[in-house]
Amino acid sequence: MEYEIKHQGKFKFIEEGEGEPLVLLHGLFGALSNFRDLLDYFKHYYKVVIPILPLYDLTLLETTVGGLAKFVNRFVEARGYEQIHLLGNSLGGHMALIYALKHPEAIKTVILTGSSGLFENGMGETYPKRGDYEYIRKKTELTFYNPEMATKELVDEVFEIVNNRLKAIKVIALAKSAIRHNLGEELREIKAPTMLIWGKNDTITPPMVAEEFGRLIPNTELAYINKCGHAPMMEVPDEFNTVLHAFLKKHTAG
Q: What Gene3D superfamilies does the record tag this protein with (predicted)?
């Protein structure tokens, strides 16, 4: 089903359900649709919140992973959320980690899936030439274990982004910022319970990345999902939701 996009000042977001806030942050080529199955399930247990991230609307100076984390903070403060469960996929995980480091008092749990922040195989040196639809299709397929997940609709969305000159510049700026903003040892400062849900077949942030996050962040659990790539909440939503719900139940009041 389609959900209402709500507005408060300059913020646009989806908010469904009641209870403790579960805030979802998508990645660089992500969209609200990435979390549809997760939202459908968890709105019955939590207040599920998806802010629409200004990936292409910030100034070039602010178009950094740190700039997006600051946006998340402004959004959380404007909405008055407290003790949030913060989930991020890919670049969204990177934002979640920076937010958790800067605002530990606001965080109840952190959930990472295919997160950047340590290492990722992005577009890299082979950033697509504009107009190369077949290249974009193949790159989009690499996000998943099952290439059929890269539907025409999804490929078209990515293709539109890289063929919009301004958006392409912002994407490159964010990708370079993520690589530069390597978190490393400072992750040891995150005290909130942290869940790592990782596709065993993720080629963008491979399993070794999850293991390194697990080594660096003190209070972590790691769950692998077999036959799954970089976006488990899209590719295997039932299994993802089961793992996530078991974790959240342990850290939810009542």
A: alpha/beta hydrolase
